[in-house]
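dumping the sequnces here before i forget
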Amino acid sequence: MSRNILEVNDLKTYYRTRLKEKVHAVDGVSFALEDGKTLGIAGESGCGKSTLALSLMGFYFPPLHYGGGSIKVDGTDIMKLSKEQLRTQVSGREIAYIPQAAMNALNPTLKIIRFIEDIMKEHRPELGKQQVYELAAQRFETLNLSAKVLHSYPNELSGGMKQRTVIAISTILNPKVLIADEPTSALDVTSQKAVIKLLKELLKQKFIRSLVFITHELPLLYHVTDDIMVMYAGEVVERGTAQQMIFDPLHPYTKKLMGSIIVPEEGMKGHKLAAIPGAPPNLKQVPSGCRFADRCEYARDVCRQGKVENQMLDGRVYRCHFAVDMLKEWYKNEGA
Ligand SMILES: Nc1ncnc2c1ncn2[C@@H]1O[C@H](COP(=O)(O)OP(=O)(O)OP(=O)(O)O)[C@@H](O)[C@H]1O
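..and the predicted 3d for all of it:
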């Protein structure tokens, strides 16, 4: 059996607002990612995906705070490390993060090679300027990015090329896990395909070992990731293989989410999430029962009474009171 490269157990993180209220953005999240695997994270806007990504990196800066739980990267609990250790030993080396709109955050006054020089100065100080250049040029060419890009300024690159460059820079230290938050949003279909190809190449070349891919574009998850995890109101409501999650969802929320997808034949048409009536609960005051109950057509009184525990089924996990047979019966009747 393959070992886990990332293990998250009961992770809780919250924002403290100026009025001193707590926003429970990640509320008891647990999952594991095996070496060599890719995990997609889906869910509506505001359900905690980006906060989970920040939390996994140990980026706890006010207003975001750590509330409990563990994050193990290749066996090391990063929450037990100091901020300095996180910065020098974990960030970029063990686990790298490409935030939303990262390509727009590149300093326009610096040539691309300067970003790589800065990383190497910190992590590989023994390398001279020429060695850094050669290493960067070789990496870029292996990834089918011209080494000429290294001499360009960010604004001289197209959006798609800028995004691929950011990914190449962020993975230059061969992190074990790459977390990419909406890496294809705001790109045209051709550029999206190029970004996906690059991510797959990074895995194939073993420049990264595992990938966490956050996106609203659900068909992309089907084509890119082994597993999909769906979040709702700060919690994981279901996790399974991409095939199971898209074609045989168990949780009523996953069912609604996936109901909006038509898997396009050639793979990459951008289908966004269809609107689900109602809104997620306020994360300042989360309900004690099922958080989806108010929007769930199958909800009963029991759903609102007390915490809903995860149920396991053949390696899948879903957070609902009801048994699979009952859910499937309801779904069958719905389709009839
Ligand atoms: N700086 C902040 N201060 C207070 N609350 C915040 C802050 N940033 C995010 N939140 C809240 O935390 C919750 C989770 O937000 P998060 O951005 O993680 O969701 P998301 O699923 O990534 O959404 P999106 O897909 O729009 O990026 C939301 O209720 C959001 O309003």
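The CA atoms of residues 311 and 318 lie 5 Å apart.
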